[in-house]
Amino acid sequence: MKVALITGASRGLGRALGEALAGRGWTLVLDARHPVPLAAAAAAMRRRLGESAAVYEIAGDVTSEQHRAALAAAVGRLGRLDVLVNNASTLGRSPLVSLREAPLEDLRRVYDVNVLAPLALVQGLLPLLRQSPRPTVLNVTSNGAVEHYNTWGPYGSSKAALDHLTVTLAAEEPAVRFLAVDPGDMNTQMHQDAFPGEDISDRPPPTAVVPAILDLIAGDDGSGRYRAAEIGAAP
To answer: Which of 76, 149, 187, 201 is the most exposed place for a label (fewest CB within 10 A)?
Structure first.
């Protein structure tokens, strides 16, 4: 049975992707900072798929070495890891602030969550990933990594660093697929936090993006950066 570890899985894209993979028979290890919503997400998956569904949740902060060790131990007990999804992210403070005004302590937190934690998970889990017949690391990025928007500098620059990290790891570890995936705008709590007080109901739900990501995971595309809206499109 294939195994996936998904960070930031209590809501939004992480939860939607987890539900889809569980529905395909995958075993899941789910991570999120807050235990109550994470437990609720895992319980909902079990109710939908039956109590025998192999869904394990471990709450904690991905920037914590102790928490990452707990995630690695949980995956180790399962004996394999086929896909690591680095989905957990933070915008920083809301409302968003420009780079010229961003407190450095806030920037450190954004980079710790969005760049260093994904790298640390890859470093710790590579031995298990190498044992998979088709190992994949999927890092969730953003168009803020390649476009330049006022007040999005802290988040966007962290995602640009994640993009660079992704393709560099692919060069260093050619037997593992490293995918940076930009899901596009979605109606999520994080997106709402970026636009406090605004109506974002016109954005698609995370479930709309999941089929493209599933196709990418199952397909033959190599390492690189992908936009979900273009996956499967004719050349």
So the answer is: 201
